[in-house]
Each structure stands twice: as structure tokens, then as C-alpha cells.
Amino acid sequence: MPSTLPDRDVVLVHTSDLHVDDGHKANAHDGTEGLRRVIATAQAVRADVLLLAGDTFDNHRVPAPILRRAAAMLEASGMPVVILPGNHDPALPNCLFRKAGITDLPHVHVLGVTHDEAVRFDPFGLEIWGHAHRDFNDMSPLRAPRPRTTPWQVAMAHGHYAAPDEWKDHAHRSWLISDQDLAATEAHYVALGHWDRAVSVGDGSVPAYYSGSPELAKTVNVVRLSPTEGVVIRREPVPGA
Fold first, then answer.
1. What is the pTM of this model?
2. Quick one: pLDDT at residue 24?
3. Phi and psi at residue 220, in whole multiples of 5°?
4. How far is 232 from 241, CA to CA, in rounded Å?
């Protein structure tokens, strides 16, 4: 692992559970408007990378015009984007990301599709890794954590966290994440998706946060990787959410 950090802060915006759909506002979803607002917020804080930690799309029946609109927004953003497919939009062979043309965008990286499990941003000294949902079956979102090979490392996961005293009660759930799973990453930040509320989880050994859905939490997480201050996390309001 390189011994020196980049000489400037690296700024990430982390969000999840946008549930882009056909615009009928079922279950409080709102077509591509949520994606537009998230991109605008990321641009406003001058994010270096935007992280979408699962369920960017609501289902595999999202119509082609909506897919094209979402792809056009991502293309126009011009910023690096890392997308982790979630349980609503898994990385199937005919996944939405391929249908939309998102996988053809050079600055948009879809884990499990364009990259197996990790993306490196060498100018930022940063690796972002995660295990995509590849089907609708259960799996361990943080299995086999990657050894750190860059000054900064961020893990992404889409699943359900259960604290030690709640584990037995949540054992029936799919995509479980434990304190041990989080700690084993040894990452500088774990970007979580699957919950609509924004909250930190785990035993504190690594910074692990759900961003929440921007429509319901009304914020995104801004993560600043600073060579002088370490990892600084704050919630940034999403205008119009």
C-alpha cells in the first residue's frame, strides 16, 4: 500500500435507494427527479465521486424513456460515479444499466457489470469496492473484504444491518450485515444502502453509514477524506427533496 496520502481532500457524495421508476410516484417514488437533485447536490459541493449504494432503479420494468433520461443525467454530470446494484436492480445479464446505456459512459462505473468488484481512482489514491447483488437471492454484502492497496479505501454494501443484541431477531432477513462484517473491511468509510433513514451503524471501529433515501431523509452524506483531518462526514440537504 502506498505510504503517502494525496495532498488534498477527496470529497465523496454517498446516497442510495433513489428508486427511479416511471414517475407515477408509487410508494413516494418520483421518476428521475430524485436523481437530478442528487447530481445537482453533488455538483454543488464539488464532489470528486458520487456513490449510489443500491436500488438506483426501482424494478426491472422501468420503461426505456426513463432509462434513457437517467443515463442522460449521468452523462451530463461529467463526474465520476460508482453504482452498486441492489436487490431492486441486481446486475443480471440483461440489467437495467446495460439497457439504459449507462455501462457505455466512461465516467460511470457499475460494480458487478463494468467492474467485477472494485474501481480505482489513482489521482485520488482511492479504491471503492463492493459486492453487487447479481440476482434476487440472499448473499453476504460484505463477504471477502479486499486488502487495502491504496491510501484511501471505501467499501459499499446494500443490505440490512443487525446489532449483536438484535441478530437473533433479524436472522430471518436477507442480506444481513454484522458488526464483524463492518470491522473486517478496515475501510476508511462504508457506504451503506437499503434503509430509507440516514444513520451510522456498527461498533465504531470503522465509519459505517446509511445515507437513507434522499427523498425521505432529504439529505445525502458528504464524506471528506482529508490528509490532515482524517474522515469527516456530514449530511447535506438536497434542495427540493
1. 0.93
2. 52
3. -120, 165
4. 24
